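Format notes (please read before filing issues)

Several people have asked whether sequences and structure tokens are stored in separate files. They are not. Every record keeps both together, in the order shown below: the sequence lines, then the token lines. Line labels are part of the format and must not be stripped during preprocessing.
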Amino acid sequence: MSLALTILTLLLWVLVGLLSALLGTVLLLVLVPLSLRAEGELGDERTAGSVVVGWGLGLLGVRVSYPEGGALQLFGLTVWRFSLESSDDDKREKKNKKKERKAKKQRKKAKREEDGARGSSLSKGRELYALRSFMWQVVTRLLGTFALRGRAGGQVGTGDPVDTVALRAALLELDRRVDGLELSLEYDFVDELLEVWADVRGRIWLAHTIAALVPFVFKRDAWRLLRAVRA
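Then the structure lines:
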């Protein structure tokens, strides 16, 4: 009986230790800020960039450069490297999937027009438009906790003039609302185009982010937005 009690006590202490370690890890992740820096360019001719994420004032860090690869660092020393290179078969598969997604998108658009589904799309669009003020409050509050600083620029176009106008309006509003972030973009209202560059840095304190977003969860507009997006 005493042996069984001893084993049970040890198991309980092990469980308490594991739970304490898990809770401590979560608290550290929430309370210790993350530093972030991202820079690169994305386009048809060239795609390259790098992302550096640090935690614990340099205690732990991840550096990723495309297409070279990445590294996990501890106290500034590299402890593990990994590659981002893909085989020729993987590249062909990704290219084919991209073509399939584009073709599927075009078929869905044509089907909506043929079936006269614009009514529901317009209804969804009106609902989202009515919630635009709430959405901007959420986005502004979220990005405000990231302490973003940097610039981005280039040329963009969706291939649809209406969508490009909406994209332009959204990005101009983002540029106006987020201090420290400068957007210098040109828009192509005819062709599909993506040639952009960016150099952005920030500091993310998860406790601050969670505290900023929690009040929005309990607002009625949050559920209206969720229903509109799922519709």
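For reference, the curators noted about this record: The longest strand covers residues 192-204. Residues 2-31 form the longest helix (30 residues).
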